[in-house]
Fold this protein.
Amino acid sequence: MKYYREITGSIIVSILLIAAISTCIVCGAVSEDTSDSDKAYYALASIMLNPKEDDKTTMMQWIDETELLSEDEKPELKQNLLDAWERFPDNTDEDLEAAKLALDIAVDVAAKEKAAEKDDSDLAPEEIAAISYSNTYSIKESPGLIEIRGDLPVFSSDEEKQEVYSILDVLHNDIREDIEPYVYPNGPIISNGWNIEGCYSITFSKDMEVTDSQIDEIYELIIKKSMELSGKEVTVAFLEGNIENEMAVEEETTQSATPGFSALSLVFVILLILLRRNR
């Protein structure tokens, strides 16, 4: 499946780049003597010569926030882009240079966003164990907290953290079928997992009634599975959340992945695919 996705991604990138390069050539942005290695770069830059209004605003914001330019250079690039957008499709070499500089900024933003995607859920237990986290964070302060059963572990070494995280990670992977009858829409659970404090967390929909007996059943199920897998009990936190917010996030993610995205989104899709392939 991973190989299939990589092949599919490569095909998509190739098709998009060919289409973009063709656009460049039609607009006169890429000269005949441009090297093949530079054509893909020019292609991506050319996409930025005719963005939607919302994308223009985003690009201006990126320029304001970028560290790749000095404060004196930012107004000049912004004005050059405004002129380039006004002239499209009769753009000049100077317009393409401005678009290329804007692309450099987009690459920088995409790389930072890709790095930010690798949160705790993407890390192996031993990687998370090496992270030092702020003592000011506590699940006890969560506004949706119902109760915590058991004591939150106090780690004295990375080895202790890794041991607890490994237990929680294995538990999370093995308990899926057991907990399925309690998961929305069959039950009140809208999310479950574990956090960096070393406890397993269950989040109920605040719109569904949850009885003490249900919490007892779920807790006993988790403890039983934990004992079977590791011979140790885990701390379990029960919280409540809004199912509508969870569904809104899912819907927004789905819509952003459908056809009809903007030119700037197209640039980001290509950049993130390339970054993923080069990881």
Notes: The chain has eleven helices and four strands. Strands lie at 145-149, 189-194, 199-205, 235-241. Residues 170 and 229 are 8 Å apart (CA to CA). The two ends are 18 Å apart (CA to CA).
